[in-house]
Amino acid sequence: MRTPSTPHRQLLRFFRGFGAPYRRLFALGVGMRLCETAADLVTPWPVAAVIDHVLGAGASRGSPLGPLLGVLGTGRTAMLTAAAALVVLVALVSAAFDYAGDRLMNGAGERMSAAIRRETFAHLQRLPLSYHDRQTVGGSASRVITDCGAVKDALVAFCSVLFPGVLSATGYAAALLVLDWRFGLIGVAAVPAVLFLGVRNRRRGHRAARRRREAEGELTALVAEALQGIRTVHAFGGHGVHDRAFAAGSRGVLSAGLEAVDVQARRVPLLESVTAAATAALLWTGGVGVLRGWWSTGHLVVALGYLTGMVAPLRALSKLSGTFAQGQASAERVAAVLAEPCPLRAPVRAGARGLPRRARGRVDFAGVSMDYGDRRALHRLDLKIAPGERIALTGPNGAGKSTALALVAGLYRPTRGTVRIDGTATADLPEEWLRRQVTAVLQETFLFAGTIADNIRYARPDASPRQVRAAAEAALVTAFTDGFPDGLGTRLGDCGGGLSGGQRQRVGIARALLADAPIVLLDEPTSGLDAEAERLVVAALGRLVAHRTVVMVTHRPALLETATGTVALAPAGPARATGRPAGR
Ligand SMILES: Nc1ncnc2c1ncn2[C@@H]1O[C@H](COP(=O)(O)OP(=O)(O)OP(=O)(O)O)[C@@H](O)[C@H]1O
């Protein structure tokens, strides 16, 4: 999915809500930063005082800290000791405020980015299948992990560098002006030049950052795909194919990365030149002033210190321009996910209120057509299924059988026509309610890493161990887990590895039994199983389908026999009913 470029301000507005809970932390952090800037402004003064009052460079306008040097005595050594102590004290105060400011502001930045990451994942998970069909798993994962990470880096850089940098540069510029208007003018004149150079080529840098993030996302998708299909890769020795695709993707990342490096590298020498020019101007003007007795050497040292202090954060900022460009590109990609409409989060429609806890289980297809883009999967399907009926959908590959099941589950919206449950269109039903009424056992049961019991409980997280055990027994799961040392507590590997196909299906049936939904969808749950495994799975399914409305897709006679009616679908053509018409 290409992400359209979003203007800066629009993007800031989009993410502002995430910062709202941390306003107080942020404000406190700002306070600490102001104190730190004030302490930094005092830093050069002990040195100036030593020059003017101890080394005797001649102080026509003495250092304001001069009187403080006498606290330990008026001898030169005592004054030097007092100056050294002052240097340490000011540095300690500045460091303390720096620490507090970092903790507060970076903490707010970290918390805000954690909230963005959580929300992006939560939203992504709830987006409809039609969205996920258009994405790669790796690409989506890269948005949650890498893009949210880049947004976090930019936020933390904002809190720890950009904001304090602007604050201290402003403080130093103001202090230079207060010290002497001539010094101030030189300092202030340097600011626009530094800022101009800092943001120069911003658009090119941003374009490179976006290109890089897109390419990195595609690279992550390539890795995820190769690893998901690692058995096939090994079986066919397809490593070279993936190597070549990866190398091509890497070239894209590299060229975008080199462009970003170039944008960055061009700024630094220019910035160094501006800094050197400003320092030279100040040194010359300041030196002339000292020679003519307008101000003391200490003042000149302070002014030079202020100028260095003012330019340093601006230079640091420009070095971070890559982080900000990367953060903006990633923020656009995250915003694109968050802006996708999510029916699961839509407010419940008025007509859908007052639904019973449990549906009776009537399912109607009325003139239902379904297109995936320009591919037609179903054409004007009319079908009425009464509560408790078990209807088998048959037809050749691509006839739309699985699509019909997906429509009952509300995983897709029909392109035309309506699928109703107990008379209400699935589009009008709250997703949460619908999930409780419809459960499914698919061709391959997906199991998550965790215990077998965890996987059964997935259908109903609040189920008691006894309920989980009862479902496992009914689905004949305990028939094999009782032989395992940890029984239902046996841990499964990544993606539920460690069980045979038939065992996985039985765990899937136990899960569906625990869900206890009135409508059950079966999509080839026994295909790929040998005769013995099929016999056991069909026995377990027998308990699942009893007293429930069932829509099944199967070619296996053992399961077909359990159906009360059959409906044959023709590829993208009108449905043709055979056997006993269902519930008409
Ligand atoms: N997510 C999808 N995106 C695009 N096209 C799809 C998608 N799912 C299914 N299709 C297409 O819709 C048509 C119907 O697919 P469906 O899986 O519903 O058929 P089926 O009857 O269940 O097939 P099979 O017996 O092979 O499982 C096919 O042409 C298929 O390519």
In words, what does this structure look like?
It is built from 20 helices and twelve strands. 38% of the residues are buried. It has helices spanning 8-19, 23-42, 45-54, 76-126, 129-133, 137-179, 181-199, 202-228, 230-236, 239-291, 297-319, 321-338, 401-408, 431-437, 452-457, 465-474, 478-481, 501-515, 531-545, 557-560, and strands spanning 363-372, 375-385, 390-394, 416-421, 424-425, 438-441, 450-451, 491-492, 519-523, 549-553, 565-568, 576-578. Helix 3 (45-54) packs antiparallel against helix 4, helix 4 (76-126) runs antiparallel to helix 6 (137-179) and helix 6 runs antiparallel to helix 11. It is elongated and about 110 Å long. Residues 573-584 have low confidence and may be disordered. It folds into two domains: 9-344, ABC transporter transmembrane region fold; 388-406 and 429-578, 3-Layer(aba) Sandwich (Rossmann fold), CATH 3.40.50.300. The strands form three sheets. A six-stranded mixed beta sheet has the order 6-9-10-3-11-12. Strands 2-1-4-5 form a four-stranded antiparallel beta sheet, covered by helices on one side. It has a two-stranded antiparallel ribbon with strand order 7-8. With 584 residues, it is an alpha/beta fold. It binds adenosine-5'-triphosphate. Adenosine-5'-triphosphate binds next to strand 2 and helix 13.
